User: Fold these one by one.
Assistant:
Number 1:
Amino acid sequence: MAMKETQGSLRAYFLIAGAIGLLFGLREIAEVSKLSIAALPTDWMIAIYVPLIVRLGLGAAFIVAGIFLKPALLTGAGWIKHILSLALVLMIANGVLIAAVLGADVGRQGLVTAIIGVAITFYLYKSVTRLSAEAQARAAAPAPPSARVA
């Protein structure tokens, strides 16, 4: 039997992943600010800062998605699907950027992180689509007749 996300587990994932993304992004900004990166080539600076900015933005977006998941599912969760689609594109772009600029050896961790992130985000997209369809079907179903006791 395949594992299926519930609304509660999906909400928890969005909130936890968003918080972790924000915290790691802020930590990495603090670490990068200690470095003397002015001497680095522009492409290296882009390869350092773009994934940071993406992590912070997606972290905040995931927290918002977790907070407003229930009402979003009832309306099709279009904006959450857009966030997840954007996350897929940005994670792929991050992986390509890191591999192209830093190389496979130096950027291995960033490349692996991007690949895992793409797989998880694809799974989340499928889960949001399924849960949204289920929530809309429940909302559209007629109310069961009330039982009368004689």
Number 2:
Amino acid sequence: MVTGWVLGTGPCGQGCNKTDIGQLTNQRRQAMETNLASTDLFGEYTLSFPDKQNKQNQTSLRGQFEKNYTETIIAVSNSALYEQELLRFSFLLLPIDVEQEFG
């Protein structure tokens, strides 16, 4: 997934510049979330599915995400004030026979 942020507000962090391109943001992301006491600072990943009564349920993928992601800075523009990262992660679908939606 490609993510885009106003320069310095995303996982690249304050002081982000073109020399950061190609660097991983995992430690920076974790430090920013810890410093701001926010586990969903950069979004929340969930899996939605219907139960037997067709009521929608939602489960957080946060635990799986934290253990299994890499994020690399792919672009920085000082003139346009943006940063972009390439976020890669995987997760297991629930072992149930229903449609499951990632969000």
